């Protein structure tokens, strides 16, 4: 691989075999008014998963996040993930249509007075149907039903391109921006090589074709 001789000011090189993303954190300090016309469609239900197994959880997580390179919970040690799933202050929900999972909602209340909207998303079949807005109304109602003063979430440039605007329309305000880099999970076999085609794979030097 040819080396970049000189980077413009403000640029940083990302190592081959790695990916980079801009992470935006957003927050709110009171529950906003529900967005109109955003109830769950007939036949959909939001079911809380009480102490789900690691396999059940990762199946849901992967169904929603694979195309967006969600991998943190796939590579997390089983004992650490099991502790999170068993914690009564972590509320995990699956959006279902009676036959299959269509979405994930995870609310983390482990910090007193706060809630992190840890994971929120839909499977490809449900994206663009208006279901996301309905799921967000459910998320806000559930989060603010607890004694919290702050609800926060983060999104990144690996997510759906409309994610940041969606969170802002839902009542969140950006407050921090960071750049995160790490090994590409497709190269380690954690995720299929053909997922997330919007993010190119940059092979490490010496990788055979």
Automatic annotation (TrEMBL):
Keyword Acyltransferase listed? The answer is yes
Question: What PROSITE patterns does the record point to?
Answer: GNAT (PS51186)
What are the recorded GO MF terms, alphabetically? Answer: acyltransferase activity, transferring groups other than amino-acyl groups
Q: Which InterPro entries match?
A: Acyl_CoA_acyltransferase, GNAT_dom
Protein origin, superkingdom:
Bacteria
Q: Where is the N-acetyltransferase domain?
A: 44-194
Q: Which UniProt keywords apply?
A: Acyltransferase, Transferase
Pfam families this protein is in?
A: Acetyltransf_1
Q: Cross-referenced SUPFAM superfamilies, in alphabetical order?
A: Acyl-CoA N-acyltransferases (Nat)
Protein's recorded name? GNAT family N-acetyltransferase
Species this protein is from: Paracoccus limosus
């Amino acid at each position: 691989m040819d080396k970049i001789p000189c980077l413009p000011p403000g640029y940083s090189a990302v190592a081959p075999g790695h990916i980079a993303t801009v992470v935006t954190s957003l927050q709110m300090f009171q529950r906003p008014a529900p967005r109109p016309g955003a109830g769950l469609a007939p036949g959909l239900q939001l079911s809380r998963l009480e102490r789900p197994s690691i396999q059940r959880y990762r199946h849901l997580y992967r169904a929603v996040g694979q195309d967006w390179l969600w991998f943190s919970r796939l590579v997390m040690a089983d004992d650490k993930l099991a502790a999170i799933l068993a914690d009564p202050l972590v509320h995990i929900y699956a959006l279902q249509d009676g036959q299959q999972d269509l979405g994930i909602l995870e609310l983390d209340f482990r910090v007193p007075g706060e809630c992190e909207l840890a994971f929120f998303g839909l499977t490809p079949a449900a994206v663009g149907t208006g279901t996301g807005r309905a799921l967000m109304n459910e998320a806000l109602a559930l989060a603010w039903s607890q004694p919290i003063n702050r609800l926060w979430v983060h999104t990144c440039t690996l997510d759906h391109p409309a994610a940041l605007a969606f969170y802002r329309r839902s009542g969140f305000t950006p407050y921090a921006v960071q750049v995160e880099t790490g090994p590409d999970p497709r190269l380690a076999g954690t995720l299929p090589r053909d997922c997330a085609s919007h993010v190119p794979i940059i092979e490490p030097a010496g990788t055979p074709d």
